[in-house]
Design brief:
This protein has one domain: P-loop containing nucleotide triphosphate hydrolases (Rossmann fold, 3-Layer(aba) Sandwich), CATH 3.40.50.300. The strands form 2 sheets. A 6-stranded mixed beta sheet has the order 6-7-8-3-9-10, with helices on both faces. The model has no long low-confidence stretch (mean pLDDT about 95). Strand 9 and strand 10 form a beta hairpin. The protein is α/β, with parallel strands linked by helices and about 230 residues long. The site of magnesium ion has 3 residues, from helix 1. Magnesium ion binds next to helix 1.
């Protein structure tokens, strides 16, 4: 079973009576454990594609299966549940809750999934240790550095053991050294078998990723596997 199976996906946005074709026929299959970078010029449809892959938005046409289930056939509740349990999102600007501590931020999706208090605390502690922040769990988001915030966001994305992690420009707000720490963490996730899709402008990031998909004007014009290193 593929984690993602997309066929001829299109996305047309309507804005003030004008139609903007953001995706014009994208077909993409992602197997469990793959690590992909999506690159391409600004406006080529990268974020739009990521939103479809995460069930945040639905395609205008085409077929999309996530974890073997056709997205089209899902009710809103089923789609919400799929997003909560099967997909973890990482954003450029972290999107942490500022007044909550690192641990509380990681516990949020666990609470939403109905995990009990004790297990939540344990799992959050494990995840913060996994991203190297065991000693920052009581810091509020505002009391963390940018790189630390992004690591908390990655721990939060992993909370419900999702089948797929989607990241949109995860190093975009970070300096080079801090970005490198985040890349090392993605390598660790990949080694541990997590399926990862990372949208990036960062050539260093793209160059180290095993599979690179390039978008141009809403279409995939290159989909290449790195030769074994
Ligand atoms: N909600 C929306 N309504 C209307 N048009 C949109 C909307 N979201 C995106 N678009 C348009 O769709 C196209 C693709 O946008 P998208 O955000 O996917 O590009 P991107 O490749 O992520 O760009 P960037 O690298 O700048 O983030 C753009 O032309 C954009 O203006
Ligand atoms: Mg974008």
């Amino acid at each position: 079973m593929s984690v993602v199976l997309g066929r001829d996906l299109t996305k047309v946005y309507s804005l003030n009576g004008r139609q903007v074709a953001a995706l014009r026929g994208v077909s993409l299959t992602i197997a469990a454990g793959e690590y992909l970078a999506i690159t391409g010029p600004s406006g080529s449809g990268k974020s739009t594609l990521l939103q479809l892959l995460g069930g945040l938005d639905s395609p205008s046409s085409g077929r999309l299966e996530l974890m073997g289930r056709a997205v089209e056939g899902l009710s809103d509740d089923e789609l919400t549940d799929l997003r909560l349990r099967q997909v973890g999102f990482v954003f450029q600007r972290f999107h942490l809750m500022p007044v909550l501590t690192a641990r509380e931020n990681v516990e949020l999706p666990l609470a939403e999934a109905g995990v009990g208090r004790r297990e939540r605390g344990q799992r959050a502690a494990e995840l913060l240790a996994y991203v190297g922040l065991a000693d920052r769990s009581d810091h509020r988001a505002t009391q963390l550095s940018g790189g630390e915030m992004q690591r908390v966001a990655i721990a939060r994305a992993l909370a419900n053991r999702p089948a797929l992690i989607l990241a949109d420009e995860p190093t975009g707000e970070l300096d080079a050294a801090t970005g490198a720490q985040i890349l090392a963490l993605f390598d660790q996730l990949h080694r541990d078998g997590v399926t990862l899709v990372v949208v990036t402008h960062d050539e260093h990031l793209a160059a180290r990723v095993p599979r690179r998909v390039h978008l141009q004007d809403g279409r995939i014009d290159r989909d290449e596997l790195a030769t074994a290193r």
